[in-house]
């Protein structure tokens, strides 16, 4: 009996944002259509997540509840509550590790319950056997007499603006995207995944986040293909961060490694970063892509995160929260722990890694095509000049001067990091 509950607690949280919720609704509609082809349908409920599932289990006379397990603190807490309540009425709760290739905690070093460095985790991740891919049933026998809510409209679940070019949700769209990208770009993934204008990344992260695609299935099918190893390594990063958040749930919003930072509180600089008006074209292109598409190229994510946390020396949590406002693939483990990696408070063994935004633009968008695509003011600036237009051009097209001098800002950042704030 396939079931989805719109959890009032999540709907009331800041995680309920139009891009993700709209994508989820499209994915649920697609799932319901596929289930109907198999003779069943998706049962929808809204309310207290635990209560609604137990009610359905009672009415269906179920003896087991199968749940796709997540690793966030909220997800684990509500699953623990469900398990405790279900046990009192003789119903078994079976947790399925559906969002990762291997379950969080399946491998660990001898001296800890989780890996803190990616490379040794990746080696173990490759070594252990992966579970087989589950087969799709040919038919599903529906439970008679169970009522389902109609699929709600987005406006009934959350308010706010949806990105104008956000991708469509659902497994049907996911498989189209994966198949097309695999044929076109997988073989050259290692060479082209950082190419900003080429857009040769898979863009399947939203589908992995919402379960429209199985990371296990994708990794299993692609690992032996040309270019597959480099791509599957990126899927391993998802598992790596999942096992960290499972072991350290506080790491979602607290420093994994406290650096004693005394973050800058300049609200005007932060507002310029949010608006894509920093005066650094590749940074601004990334920030505007985020709002336009609910997505940002991974190389751009690293550049804009480094700029906020190093050039502006502002708290990574502010950047992570802004990303979660817009990203369709907004995932607590991947988003926030990647932010910590960039801020130097996370798992990176080089905490002072710095991205020079102009050099990054020149290297990964040499002809300025990515910048022109997203920064309208610079759409007529030719070639690589779009990466660092002169003051006269900026004034003529209405594009701002840089809000900081990169070299000066980084010198100040290094000085602050050299004199950390003592623990409170």
Automatic annotation (TrEMBL):
Q: Does the keyword Flavoprotein apply?
A: yes
Q: Which UniProt keywords apply?
A: Chromophore, FAD, Flavoprotein
Its cofactor is:
FAD
What is the residue range of the signal peptide feature? none
| Pfam families to which the protein is assigned, alphabetical | DNA_photolyase, FAD_binding_7
Q: Which GO terms describe its molecular function?
A: deoxyribodipyrimidine photo-lyase activity; DNA binding; FAD binding
Outline the extent of the Photolyase/cryptochrome alpha/beta domain: 1-101
Q: Which BP terms does GO give this entry?
A: nucleobase-containing compound metabolic process; response to light stimulus; response to stress
Protein name per UniProt: Unannotated protein
């Amino acid at each position: 009996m396939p079931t989805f509950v719109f959890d009032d607690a999540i709907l009331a949280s800041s995680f309920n944002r139009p891009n993700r919720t709209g994508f989820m609704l499209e994915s649920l509609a697609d799932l319901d259509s596929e289930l109907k082809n198999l003779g069943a349908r998706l049962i929808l409920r809204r309310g207290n997540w635990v209560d609604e599932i137990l009610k359905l289990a009672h009415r269906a006379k179920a003896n087991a509840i199968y749940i796709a397990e997540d690793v966030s603190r909220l997800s684990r807490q509500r699953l623990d509550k469900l398990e405790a309540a279900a046990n009192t009425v003789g119903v078994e709760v079976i947790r399925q590790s559906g969002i990762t290739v291997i379950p969080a905690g399946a491998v660990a070093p001898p001296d800890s319950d989780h890996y803190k460095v990616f490379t040794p985790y990746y080696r173990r991740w490759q070594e252990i056997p992966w579970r087989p891919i589950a087969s799709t049933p040919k038919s599903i026998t529906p439970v008679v007499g169970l009522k389902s809510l109609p699929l709600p409209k987005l406006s009934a679940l959350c308010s706010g603006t949806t990105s104008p070019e956000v991708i469509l949700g659902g497994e049907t769209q996911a498989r189209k995207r994966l198949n097309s990208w695999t044929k076109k770009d997988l073989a050259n993934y290692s060479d082209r995944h950082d190419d900003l204008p080429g857009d040769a990344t898979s863009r399947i992260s939203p589908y992995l986040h919402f379960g429209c695609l199985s990371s296990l299935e994708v990794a299993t099918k692609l690992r032996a293909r040309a270019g597959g190893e480099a791509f599957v390594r990126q899927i391993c990063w998802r598992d790596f961060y999942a096992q960290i958040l499972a072991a350290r749930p506080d790491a979602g919003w607290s420093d994994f490694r406290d650096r004693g930072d005394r973050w800058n509180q300049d609200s005007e600089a932060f507002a310029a970063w949010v608006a894509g008006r920093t005066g650094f074209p590749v940074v601004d292109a990334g920030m505007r892509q985020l709002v336009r598409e609910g997505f940002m190229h991974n190389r751009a994510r690293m550049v804009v995160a480094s700029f906020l946390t190093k050039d502006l020396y502002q708290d990574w949590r502010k950047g992570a929260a802004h990303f979660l406002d817009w990203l369709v693939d907004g995932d607590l483990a991947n988003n926030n722990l990647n932010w910590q990696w960039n801020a130097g408070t996370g798992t990176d063994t080089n905490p002072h890694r710095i991205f020079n935004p102009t050099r990054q633009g020149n290297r990964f968008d040499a002809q300025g095509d990515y910048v022109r695509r997203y920064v309208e003011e610079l759409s007529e600036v030719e070639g690589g000049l779009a990466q660092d237009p002169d003051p006269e051009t900026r004034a003529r097209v209405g594009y701002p001067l840089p809000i900081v001098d990169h070299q000066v800002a980084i010198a100040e950042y290094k000085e602050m990091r050299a004199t950390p704030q003592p623990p409170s």
